[in-house]
Design a protein that fits this description.
Radius of gyration: 25 Å
Distance between the termini: 12 Å
Number of strands: 12
Strand content: 5-15%
Number of helices: 19
Structural class: alpha/beta
Oligomer: single chain
Length: 544
């Protein structure tokens, strides 16, 4: 025990030593800061993304630390020994474990050669495999990849998905490359990951992200299966978000947007929170604005629209549109964008130069890039609820201002966790080599018909002397739609809904336990940290 505790004392010193060698003394900072204030300053708007995520997590560690010490009931340990262990493990959780930086050449279609830069960060190995998307963006940086990887760790823990966090980024603008060029880049990156041990069904499982989709995931899966994974029967589980014929799963495309919808519904249905922000419970009749009409924004809009909410504004990088009177139909806007390539010019809305992040609405969904809602934006923001469809859209400066204004911020590590949840379902499907529902569909269908027949015969025996077909049984509409049993999509959507509702209840419990008011972000980080801490404590530290 003494040696184990001494190893934990050495963790922070070791991390500072590594940081000193790699980044210089000016960047060396302890991972646990005793001052967890998030006062709004200009500097907090300009913090690097990694530091922003780290500060959010540090605030939660300070809150949860004392509880973890008090709840440790192991005998023959002093309070000081428990404190050393708790702080040591919390120190282990925060930094990024491994980062791969590669640069490789590709031939363009015109014969020229480009050098492509790319990164893959693995934040935590407390659970394996690691999990996180691959984004293609000309603006991606190592800092951004590390921040997104750390966010994935907390996100997975928040929704009880047994993965560590990871992320990848390739520094390209995909619109400036042909499809054959994108395929060469993607396959070469998959090989680089494979050679360095950064991909595999039990090691690290990428997924789609900004600028990528099912096509790119199919290329990665095929490359791995045809090379390093050619002897592995589970090779196609090396990546999720694949097309259905390649082992993908029904419901994955809409999963993140559907999860955003479930997160909003979970909190906006609670009178406890609605009374704090000045809204009536329920989604029906609420107005909402979305920033980013990509996969996440589109599907968030569709599900909110079906529930009776009104889409009044949409922001995109090339323009914004608004229609406060009649609202905007998400399906019609989707069809227009597919044909025109932009939302600008949509005939049933007006173009606007107004910054819709500060426009009047009940619900705002930032579903574009990071750090979009700054302190200055937060001062002018008029929405009552912010559901973070994007990763890290709210800066620390904005967070404090929004909390003071009684704005309910549903944090990214919960709100957009639908994607990784359904990715987990796909990964399990690939390992099991069978579709959800395939083994039970016919049995459930026949059982339901036998049930109806049994009820009919019982009624006829009682009231018509056993004469057949005298008391017909007609199933209700809801039962009739489910009488044939659950399809894969039904099972996936049901599992996602249950996951989001259960996780929302965990956040609400943490809010009450720690008296956090509307600070859902800190409550979500607390929930995640408690779970990750429990894994490390039970497993111990390998070779320490």
């Amino acid at each position: 025990m003494a040696r184990y505790l001494q190893s934990l004392r050495n963790v922070a010193a070791l991390q500072r030593s590594v940081a000193l060698k790699t980044t210089g003394p000016q960047h060396v900072q302890p991972y646990l800061r005793h001052s967890s204030s998030l006062s709004a300053t200009v500097d907090e708007d300009d913090l690097p993304f990694t530091d922003m995520v780290l500060k959010f997590a540090e605030k939660a560690t300070e809150i949860v630390k004392e509880k973890l010490i008090v709840e440790d009931k192991r005998p023959r340990m002093t309070d000081e020994q428990k404190r050393v262990e708790v702080e040591g493990i919390l120190n282990l959780i925060l930094p990024c474990n491994a980062v791969l930086h590669v640069a490789f050449p590709i031939h363009r279609d015109n014969g020229e050669m480009d050098v492509i830069k790319a990164w893959r960060a693995q934040h935590s190995h407390h659970r394996t495999p690691c999990k996180g998307g691959v984004r293609y963006s000309p603006d991606v940086t190592e800092d951004e990849v590390k921040a997104l990887a750390s966010l994935m760790t907390f996100k997975c823990a928040m929704v009880d998905v047994p993965f560590g966090g990871a992320k990848a980024g390739i520094k390209i603008d995909p619109s400036k490359f042909s499809v054959p060029e994108l395929e060469r880049i993607t396959r070469r990156f998959a090989m680089e990951l494979s050679k360095k041990g950064f991909i595999g069904p039990g090691l690290d499982v990428p997924a789609p992200d900004m600028g990528t989709g099912a096509r790119e995931m199919s290329w990665i899966a095929d490359t791995y299966a045809m090379t390093h994974g050619y002897k592995d029967i589970n090779s196609h589980a090396c990546v999720t978000g694949k097309p259905i014929p390649q082992g993908g799963i029904h419901g994955r495309t809409s999963a993140t947007g559907r999860g955003v919808f479930y997160s909003i519904r979970s909190f906006i249905s609670e009178s406890e929170y609605c009374s704090e922000i000045g809204l009536l419970p329920g989604i029906g009749g609420k107005t909402f604005i979305v920033q980013g009409f990509g996969n996440v924004g589109l599907h968030s809009c569709r599900y909110l629209h079906r529930e009776g909410a009104k889409l009044v504004g949409v922001m995109e990088k090339d323009g914004s549109i608004i229609n406060r009177e009649d609202g905007i139909d998400p399906k019609e806007l989707e069809d227009y964008k597919l044909e025109a390539g932009t939302i600008v010019g949509f005939p049933k809305a007006e173009a606007t130069d107004e910054n819709l992040l500060t426009a009047e609405c009940d619900i705002l969904i930032p579903a574009a890039g990071e750090q979009q809602i700054t302190g200055e934006i937060a001062k002018q923001l008029r929405a009552k609820v912010i559901a973070e469809g994007a990763n890290g859209p709210t800066t620390i400066a904005a967070e404090k201002i929004l909390r003071d204004k009684n704005v309910l911020v549903i944090p990214d590590l919960f709100a957009n966790a639908g994607g990784v949840t359904v990715s987990y379902f796909e990964w399990l499907k690939n390992l099991n080599h069978v579709s959800y529902g395939r083994l039970t569909w016919k049995y459930e269908k026949e059982s339901n018909y036998f049930l109806l027949d049994s009820v009919q015969k019982s009624l006829e025996s009682k009231f018509s002397g056993g004469k057949p077909d005298t008391i017909p049984i007609t199933p209700t509409h809801d039962f009739a739609t489910r009488i044939a049993g659950a399809s894969e999509k039904d099972i996936v959507n049901s599992g996602l809904e249950y996951t989001m509702e259960r996780s929302a209840k965990q956040i609400m419990t943490a809010v009450r336990e720690y008296n956090l008011g509307l600070d859902l972000r800190t409550a979500a980080y607390v929930c995640a940290l408690e779970k990750i801490y429990g894994v490390y404590r039970e497993a111990g530290i390998t070779f320490s």
